[in-house]
Amino acid sequence: LIALLHQIGSFVPAAQAELPIFDQIFTRIGAADDLVSGQSTFMVEMVETQEALTRATDRSLILLDEIGRGTSTYDGMALAQAIVEHIARHVGAKTLFSTHYHELTVLEESIDRLANVHVRAVEQEGRVVFLHEVRDGKADQSYGIHVARLADLPDSLIERAQVLLSEFEQAEPVPVAAPVKAPVQEEPIDQLSLFSDADPLRETMASLDLINMTPLEALNTLYRLQAEARK
Fold first, then answer.
1. 34 close to 18: Cβ distance less than 8 angstroms
2. What is the number of domains present in the chain?
């Protein structure tokens, strides 16, 4: 909104601001099924992301909110990281990428011009207080259970969620792959192989250029491989 106000010559809500001129603004915010066209929340998310990735230039603004939340944790995190890497390497647009995948904050160490910021919050008497301040660095925790309490979910449910959270946090953390310098097809470390050495599906998987695929292309390829695997 500030970018739009600035480019039409309007005032912006700041004592002082220095803003670039953007040629396009792309947003992927919100989550809803497209019932008319029969698209799931995740498909809508991927289609809108694909449009931004293919049309944006290095003078564009991209706002992406919680990419990958419409699918499983590992799929979502993998796509989120791949999208961040693709924008950094091939698009170059100014991008605000919000996520609750805390594991992705390590990308700051390996991708130039990527910086972590977080919105500050504090706990007071067991409740979270949002301070509406943007600070440098990654967030130290999420406040999902606190928000659930603010929404007046049953106390027994909140207590059970806290117990489960403690158990999950003690489990082995989800690994995040280090970004590669160039597209290299390798077997993921410590991951069980789904195919035998002579399996044609394995050969197809090894030949895929996942780094340069758009999210929609990757999803369509996954559907095709799944169909072949079920034959």
1. no
2. 2
pLDDT for the residue numbered 32: 62
In the chain, DSSP finds a helix count (H) and a strand count (E) of 7, 5
Q: CA-to-CA distance for 192 and 45, rounded, in angstroms?
A: 29
Q: Are residues 41 and 69 in the same domain?
A: yes
The C-alpha angle 53, 56, 58, rounded to 5 degrees, equals 120
Q: Which domain holds residue 142?
A: 116-179
152: Cβ contacts below 8 Å, ≥ 6 apart: none
pTM of the predicted model as reported, rounded to 2 decimal places? 0.68
Looking up residue 36, the CATH number of its domain turns out to be: 3.40.50.300
Query: For 42-69, how does the pLDDT look when each residue is reduced to its tens digit (9 = 90+)?
Result: 888 888 899 999 999 999 999 999 888 8
- Whose structure tokens read 């996520």? 99
Type of residue at 230? R
Residue 105 makes CB contacts below 8 A (sequence gap 6+) with 116, 138
C-alpha span between 203 and 119 (Å, rounded): 45
Domain edge (last residue) among 179, 196, 211: 179
